[in-house]
Amino acid sequence: MLLKGFLLSLLYIKSIHNLKSGCGCTSNREKSEYFGTETQINNAIQNEHCPIENQYVDSIDINSKKHSEMIHIPAGAYQFGTDDVVIEDDKEGPKKLVKLKSFYLDKYEVSNRDFSIFTESTDYKTEAETFGDSFVFTLFLNGTFKEKLKDFRVMQAPWWYKVDGSNWRHPYGPDSNISDLMDHPVIHVSWNDAIAYCKWRDARLPTEAEWEAACRGGNHNFTYPWGDKLYPNKKHMSNIWQGTFPNHNSMKDGYIGTNPVHLFPQNDFGLYNMAGNVWEWTQDSWSDVNIKEKVKKGGSYLCHRSYCYRYRCSARSHNTDDSSAGNLGFRCARTA
């Protein structure tokens, strides 16, 4: 989602109109037309990116947490959507109030450890494992591997490669593993996989309205889970991209990929990583036209203001229910 002709270094963007392609946020498994030859892809690549000011990393609490803990979200009237629309095609607005019954939401994103317990208990096989492939970001692949896969990249987002053997157990291809990533969010899970896990826990996915209400921590008119400033007091509040996308991530927040689910500050409800780290599936369909397209919220570690400014509470995107990628996870909800 590359933006042209805008002063992207401004701290606030009022409206962005032409953001239908580019970041790969909606790269779905079924859309084989997304793949192109090396020549076609090179012709599609653009190099206009957004500079951002230098920031600094604060110390982070790395104590282990109980990842299955849930937070009670009280019943009430919550903001849903925004009048400060940034990406019009995503239908982020208008702002309205929705009345919600009380519910519980996972304090943390579902981790690899959590998902391992589920699969060991049920012998569940994810859709990426069944299909035999998933989408992996360019920086996690070596040059030799990328050369072999150069014609298996997403047309409008050539930093995404469809890699055989990539799945939640092998996030960067068949030679990778999660032995050092057990506290990181599980990735390469489809909406259907998330539904199966939540049902196993006697839970469900949150609705989009529930997710967004929880994101703001009970506040109104918050852009991010913590307020309106992306870096309050020069502090990193979430794991998003810093640098020049997609070639260089300065890792000023400490991470080039996912981070452990218990890191970065909580919002006012006590929830972690409601912005950045990984996209999170919700229960809702994107539209009544194709109910297989499901809403996801929160952005990911790959989001950058210059192309995918979707780590805002009101921001939204979608994928088909069988799609998976290296920046897509979830958390569960439960009716109170």
Describe the structure.
There is one protein chain. The protein has about 325 residues and is an alpha+beta fold. About 15% of the residues lie in helices and about 20% in strands. The protein has a four-stranded antiparallel sheet with strand order 1-7-8-6. Strands 13-12-11-14 form a four-stranded mixed sheet. A hairpin with a 7-residue loop joins β11 and β12. The chain is globular and about 55 Å long. The N terminus is likely disordered.
CA-atom Rg in angstroms: 19 Å
| Average pLDDT score | 85
- Which stretches of 5+ consecutive residues score pLDDT under 50? 1-22, 37-67
Tell me the number of helical segments per DSSP (H or I, 4 or more residues long): 6
What does the oligomeric state look like here?
A: single chain
Shape: globular
Could you give the order of strands across the largest sheet? 1-7-8-6
What is the structural class?
A: alpha+beta
Extended strand count: 15
Distance between the termini: 38 Å
Order of helices and strands: EHEEEEHHEHEEHHEEEEEEE
Strand count, sense and barrel status of the largest sheet are: 4 strands, antiparallel
Strand residue percentage: 15-25%
Helix proportion of residues, in percent? 10-25%
